Amino acid sequence: MDDLGGLAVDAFRSLPARYLGAAPGFDATYCIRLGDIGRSWEVRCTAHGARVRAGATRREPDVVIGTDARTWLDLREGRLSGVEAFSQRRLYARGDLDLAVGFEGLFRLPNGRPPLLRVHDVPVGRLKLSALTMGEGPDILLLHGLGSTKASFFETAAALSRNYRVHALDLPGFGGSSKPSMAPYGAPYAARQVLGAMDAMGIARAHIVGNSMGGRVAIEVGLTRPDRVRGLGLLCPAVAFVRRDWHWLVKLSRPELGMLPHSLGRARIERQFWALFADRDLVDPSVADIVVDEFERIYRSAGARLAFLASARAIYLERAYGRGGFYERLSGLEPPALFVWSSHDRLIPERFRMHVEQALPSAEQVVLRGTGHVPQVERPERTNGLLSRFFARVDALGGARGGLKAA
Question: How far is it, in rounded angstroms, from Cα 144 to Cα 384?
Fold first, then answer.
């Protein structure tokens, strides 16, 4: 074994001494594989400690993490976060993605330094929202789209964490967050929970980024509590539909059907995933496998199925115009807002920007060409650059609504 392999082995031996502990009842088994040196380890973490054993796992692992010795040492030394390694395709994971990403947050770095990130539960009343937190500086919240999780913002979290403290949340009903069966799913409900999470984390005011449904939730936070929002980065936000060709069908569909066990089928989920993008060559197929696995795993829960169907219904049936309609309310949005649309978005077509411009002419609007519904995944450098520059201008101007376009 070369020096690099030997150092990697020593890094595994140090894990029990660096373990930070976990909440009562926590019990997760990880299989860690370093492909370049042909070695694997079983790491079992509980509330009582961490145990490391070389070789194949004796029990079915909750998570399989694969990487190489150099990346493993970079993670151990804090030169790289797991999210960055995942984004750079230096690490893959199978199983519970929250457990995989949160693994490094269970251990101190050398010399007692805290980990670069942590996955943690944020208490909001009787609920808990799962959050990924990383970086230092002013706060930014990242809110995912319908059927997705905070994993859709991994690359954005890594990019923005260079200048901000970033919190990627799983909205209620999704990912690792609570899935109450009687919740009034929709933007107002989700916005209240996001504000509750801000209170629990001691965040007085933050920038908020939202994709699709998360964009609609971000707008709702800005409408109801503008004093808590510095700026809004809205990526293909699920604004109100002006025409609804399937209005009658959505009305007839009942979210309660989600309580009945059923599956959407892996082939259908894969088709829907790839339909989100304009250029499949820009998306790593291994990422598709991870996302589809995660959706299937979460959708087995009755609460997740109900939340998905109820949220979809609320988005589609929201009233666009008339007294109290979405666009009338949007005209009163106070925080500075950047709307990013995509030319090849099949779910929220870029023509929605015309309605937004009529209601909110002060907003900045950008169209990304050759891009689909999830620009932060398909065009991460372009999207993250737009967000970074926009928030820098908002910070420089003190969050004033007017004057951003001129600036």
Answer: 15
What is the C-alpha to C-alpha distance for residues 123 and 292, in angstroms, rounded to an integer? 28
Pairwise CA distance, residues 94 & 289, whole Å = 9
Name the token pair of 76: 């151990």
pLDDT in tens, 61-117: 999 999 999 999 999 999 999 999 988 889 999 888 889 989 999 999 999 999 999
Spatial CA neighbour of 42 closest among 50, 51, 34, 31: 31
Helices (H), 326-399: 326-330, 352-359, 375-378, 380-396
Cα–Cα distance between 220 and 13 in angstroms, integer?
Answer: 48
What does the buried/exposed string (b/e) look like for 87-104 if buried means 16 or more CB atoms within 10 Å of the residue's CB?
beebbbbbbbbbbbbbbb
- Tokens 């936070």 identify what position? 221
Q: Which CATH number fits domain 117-396: 1.10.600.10, 3.10.129.10, 3.40.50.1820, 3.30.450.20?
A: 3.40.50.1820
The residue assigned the tokens 């230092």 is: 136
Output the pTM of the full model.
0.92
Residue 12 CB contacts under 8 Å (≥ 6 apart), including other chains: 32, 41, 43, 52, 54
Instruction: Say which CATH topology domain 3-112 has.
Output: Nonspecific Lipid-transfer Protein; Chain A (3.30.1050)
Taking the alpha carbons at both ends of the chain, their separation in whole angstroms is 58
Contact 380, 368 (CB under 8 A): no
For the stretch 13-62, pLDDT in tens is 999 999 999 989 999 999 999 999 999 999 999 999 999 999 877 788 99
